[in-house]
Amino acid sequence: MLIYEPMDQLPNNSYYPKSDEVSSYLKQFSGKYSLDYVLKSIEGLSSLKALVIGEAIIDDYHFGNILGKSAKEPIIALRYAREESYLGGALAIANHLAGFCQEVGLLAMLGEKDSQEKFVRRHLKKNIKPAFVYKEHSPTIVKRRFLEDSTFRKLLELYFINSNNLNDRQTKALIKKLKPLLSRYDLVICADFGHGMFNSYSRDFVSKKAKFLSVNAQANAENFGYHTISSYPRADLLCLDEREIRLEHQDKSGDIDDVAKGVFNKIKANYMIVTRGASGSVGYQGNGRRKIFRVPSLATKDIDRVGAGDAFFAITSALIYNNVPLEAVCFIGNMVGAIAVSIIGNKKSVTKKDLVDFIKNTLGQP
């Protein structure tokens, strides 16, 4: 696998034409929250120590130039151009957080064979303290994507994965490593990709022992229909995309607020944020103070959505823990997501400087 230095540039948001919806929202938001308050909310994360737990994933991108349809098969033929590999999954979430927080603990699942541990350690940021569990008879998860080089359109995904759950002995080893970490860190971010690291016992353990728990249970091609957020009995923050929350509530097209209410009735949670792609995000405040905040999408350059939800999840979790108001959290989260979709995969983490500059431009201060 070849690694290339990030070359993505943050789009200059000062000059992009805002829709009427976005312009109206930014005027309303600025009337409630000053630029100074938003920037101080971000700077307030600098002393935070957070723990990320979840599956390690390597995102493997293979780029090619389309030659056309194969002469003998109904498939597209590509001429190889290049390949790049990035840290994904819980590793990417830890890297995003590390740019904002003082210290990030990490407990991730690698494969016992072809672990790629040296590659992982080499590309984690310096203020991350990693620990690993190793899954038997498994490689570290690799998700290989084949793309057209000029447009970055994805053509095919190939997973290197063993998605069986950890056995009882390995689950005990996981719990043994978790215990001291959960007592050390106040904020715990659980990135459950449904690829076998967690089972009902370990999920219950995390739910009971974490002081402040933020959870995402991702629905993806490998686990779709078998992995939903209700496998966690409680959380302080649930962060899901619209497909995931609808899957949990078994409601494909109903009003999103009704769907969210149904999930709140199932799971004990204080906050829930639902990301909706081009439709922005919706924040729900529970705990007896039912409030709803809607924030439009603020993206100006949509190159690749892989990893954008993880970046959003990382920073909004830290902001909620720091008692930033939910509406401001959703706004900052959408700004993070807007930066992330302008980057190929997890080639570059969202940095504090990128975020601060983008917010200044968006709210009118160059």
UniProtKB/TrEMBL annotation:
Pfam families, per the entry: PfkB
Cellular component annotations (GO), alphabetically ordered: cytosol
Classification via InterPro entries: PfkB_dom, Ribokinase-like
One GO MF term: heptose 7-phosphate kinase activity
Domain called Carbohydrate kinase PfkB: residue spans: 50-345
Protein name (Swiss-Prot/TrEMBL): Carbohydrate kinase PfkB domain-containing protein
Native source organism of the sequence: Candidatus Nomurabacteria bacterium RIFCSPHIGHO2_12_FULL_37_29
